[in-house]
Amino acid sequence: MKRPIFLLVFLSLVFTACSGSDASSEPRTLTVYAAASLTEAFTELGRAFEAEHSGVILAFNFGGSQNLRTQIEQGAPADVFASANTREMDTLVTQHMVEAGTPKVFLTNQLVVILPKENPAGIASLEDLSKPGLKLVLAAEEVPAGRYARQILDQLNARFGAEYKDKVLTNVVSNEDNIRQAVTKVQLGEADASIVYVSDAVAVPELQRIEIPAEVNVIAEYPIAPLMESVNSGLANEFIAYVLSPNGQATLEKWGFTPVAP
Question: What Cα–Cα distance (Å) separates residue 187 from each residue in 16, 129, 182, 193, 245?
Fold first, then answer.
């Protein structure tokens, strides 16, 4: 009569062990807030990272860096922040939401002019952006890409005359909350041109481009860091290490960014 009781106890222990194993293998979600210009590159990086980390799910929130920083300030749960400029990251460091010394620059980017495939406005040069009647779309000035675009226009005044920047800005019909919205309007033919990141142009190869010379272009540095309130700090640091790894840097280069590590 003792054998059935022993069997029941044994089965109970096995069931408990299996249940504990299932609990420990529950998926972990890593939430990454990243600049809109990183959408394609980080989506690909995320899939590769998930493939190497069983049970890990990457949840991305892409948007303008200034909007992402505001969301974090307001308490939105995030594990990693990747910004298109150092200003937003420095603000979070000042507010003790990112530990000083932890942000790492993981790539650089530059800007380029994009035009619709058919180029109906006949834009052939940077100087043409100042022609009256053009429909130009930029990222808003508080967006990193928008700020960089206006810096470039400032520097082009020396080439095309002191009123060049003002004439170009007169043609702006829309200031977008993030750079991808500007790209979309050019794709749809709602704008004759935009000034965007090189990586954005790589993501939409059907659009025409006008290169911006290096001497007047801007080198945008992108920093990445874990958030101090992250509940997955170890995993956050693993993801950042992957972004900086040879495989991660190669993926970023594929999408038009300039890697910081060979």
Answer: 57, 18, 9, 10, 33
In a domain, 1, yes or no: no
Three-state SS annotation for 44-104: HHHHHHHHHCCCEEEEEEEECHHHHHHHHHCCCCCCEEECCCHHHHHHHHHCCCCCCCCCE
First to last CA, the chain: 71
According to the model, what pLDDT value does residue 13 have? Answer: 41
How crowded is the C-beta side of 184, counted as CA atoms within 13 Å? 11
Tell me: pLDDT of 177 over 80: yes
Q: What does DSSP assign to residue 212?
A: -
Q: 144 and 133, same structural domain?
A: yes
Return the pLDDT at 261.
78
Looking at the 3D structure of the chain, how many domains does it have?
Answer: 2
Q: 12 vs 3, 5, 18, 214, CA distance in Å?
A: 14, 11, 10, 70
Residue 188 belongs to a domain: yes
Structure tokens at 23: 């609990």
User: pLDDT band at residue 20, thresholds of 50, 70 and 90?
Assistant: very low
> Which percentage of the chain shows pLDDT scores above 70?
90
Residue 28 has pLDDT above 70, yes or no: yes
Half-sphere exposure of 240 (CA within 13 A, CB side): 23
Domain with 153, as residue range(s), is: 111-211
Per-residue pLDDT band for 112 (boundaries 50, 70, 90) equals very high
Give yes or no for residue 12 having a pLDDT over 90: no
The domain that holds 123 is classified in CATH as 3.40.190.10
